[in-house]
Amino acid sequence: MANQRYMRIITALILSIGLPLLAAAQDLKIPQPSTTQRIEQDFGLGTVSITYSRPNTKGRTIFGAMEPYGLVWRTGANAATKLKLTDSINLDGHPLAPGEYSLFTIPGEREWIIILNNTANQWGAYAYDSTKDVLRFKVKPAKMDRKLETLTIQFANMNVEQGDLQIMWENTMVSMKMTTDVDARIMANIDKAMQGEHKPWYFAAIYYYNHDKDMHKALAWMQEYDKVQPNEYNIKYWMARIQLKLGDKPGAIATATEGLRLANAEPNAEYIRLNKEVLEAAKHS
Fold first, then answer.
1. N or C: which end of the chain has fewer CB within 10 A?
2. Cβ contacts of residue 229 below 8 Å, gap of 6+?
């Protein structure tokens, strides 16, 4: 009985000491050596976002050594790298529907295999299941002229309908072309909006200008908006650009001169500069 009482006392002491330590450990926050980065890019009519952990080389040889050639890699550290789309895109010419995917790669000396897998949330590549792949394709790696200590995934060379998704680490870069064909959808949206009560004259005209659509229609829309907002230097600026694109140099000069006067009156340095640019372009066209 005495031994039992003794053991109960010892157990109680261990618990009284251990439980607070366990609770403290659970509350302790320690940063991961491979820090997490989340990047998001507006693209087409949606967004593309990447979540991944960023290991460092720490003097090690990475590809062909720490990350062997020919083996599936989580393309980062900790959890598998995640790619999220809110709209359809083409990745290196391959269609990819909206959704969340894990991004795996198989590095190779002369080619890499890019893998998009339906299981978005998984730790590392330990439970990777190739039967859940939605996309696989090959790309050529390139050698960089500088060594990159930290794994970096980035969007580069972006515009509305195309750009590059790049994976860079050590002295290797893999680049994938992203494209999206949204022009037909945007044109349909403009046509539909123009049937409504609140017509998007301004932004529709700018879209037409930037995408070499019907400049006469773009000018008519900007003129309609100018009637509603007759003292706006930004409207004058865009109207002048459209006029210049149509070959109406005197009209562009008159409109940009009025835009410059309005911008100077505020003053607004950006539109002072922009209207001056139109005037300069008109003089040399």
1. N
2. 235
The answer to whether the pTM exceeds 0.70 is: yes
CB 275 within 8 A of CB 259: yes
With a pLDDT cut of 90, the percent of the chain lying above it is 84
Q: Are 38 and 49 in contact (CB under 8 A)?
A: yes
* 92's tokens: 């290196």
- Burial tier of 69 (Cβ tally within 10 Å: 0-12, 13-18, 19+): middle
> Contact 149/57 with Cβ under 8 angstroms?
yes
Query: Measured between alpha carbons, how far is residue 182 from residues 30, 186, 258, 275, 281 in Å?
Result: 44, 6, 35, 30, 31
Dig out the tokens for 62 from the structure. Answer: 């990475």
Looking at the DSSP assignment, which residues form a beta bridge with residue 36? 53
Q: What is the pLDDT of residues 233-264, one digit of tens each?
A: 999 999 999 999 999 999 999 999 999 999 99
Beta carbons within 8 Å of 31's beta carbon, 6+ residues apart: none
Identify the three-state secondary structure at position 2: helix
Q: How far apart are CA 81 and CA 131, in angstroms?
A: 18
